[in-house]
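Check this:
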Amino acid sequence: MNEGFKRILAVSAALIFSASVSAFAKERVTVKGSTTVLPITQKAAEKFMKKNKDISITIEGSGSGNGIKALLDGSTDIANASRQMKSKELDAAKEKGMKVKEITVAYDMIVPIIHKSNKVKNLTIDQLKAIYKGEIKNWKEVGGSDENIVVVSRDTSSGTYEVWHEKVMHKQDVTPRALLQASNGAVLTTVSKNPKALGYVGFGYLNKTVNKINVNNVVPTVKNGKTGKYPISRGLYMYVNENNYSKPTAKFVKYLLSGTGQKMVKQAGFIPR
C-alpha cells in the first residue's frame, strides 16, 4: 500500500470518526410527567428540534406525580404537571437542596364526557360528586335513560385526578367500582365504546368520538376557561431544578413560552397564557 493511499484512508477514517462524534454529540433534554401537557410538549419539541438540530428532546407521558418524582430523583430535566406540586413534594426538594421553579405554560379545563348516544347535556358539581362517590348510580337520576352509570376515572398518579379530587370530590374518595385509566386517551377510548360510561379529560383531548357535558350550566369554552368561569379550570405547569438548569432546557422552555410556542398551545387545544 503506497503512502498516498494510506493518507487518504487516514483522512477518510478521521472524517467518519468526526461525523460519528458529531451525530452523538447532541445535547439532550428529558421531559417526563403529565399526559395532559404531553401534546403541547410534543408539538413544541418537534418544531424546536428542527430549528435546533444540536438538541435532542425525549418526552415521556407517565402522569404528573411520576414526572415530579423523576425531577426529585434527578432522572428528568423537566417535570410536566397538570397540578401544582404538593407541600410534601416541595419539602422533599428542599431537603435535597433543590431550587424548584414553577412555570405556567398554559391553562386547561377538565371536562366530563359521555358516549355519543347519551342525551344528558349538563351536570352540576354536586351531581358529579354524587356519581363519583357512588351515591347516584343510574342515568335516569340526572335526566338520562334507565341505565346504570359506569364511572371512569384517572388513577391517583394523575394530575387530572388530583384536580378532580379537589374541585369535584372535595377530597373525598371515588367509588371503588370506578374503572381507573392511566391517561386521557385511555379515558376517551373507554367512554367512546361504552354507552353507560361517564369520564373526564383535559379540554385539549376532546374530539368527536364523545359528547362533552356542561358543568353548572357553563359551557367549556376557551373564554370560560381563561376567565375561570368554568368551574373545573386549572393551570398546566413545567417544573425545573434551577440548580441544574441546563442551557438547552432553558432554551426549550423559553421557546414554549414565546409567541410561537403559545400558538402551538392553542393548536393543541389548550388555552395560552
Confidence is low (pLDDT under 50) at residues 4-23. The chain has two domains: 25-107+235-267, 108-233. The longest strand covers residues 100-114.
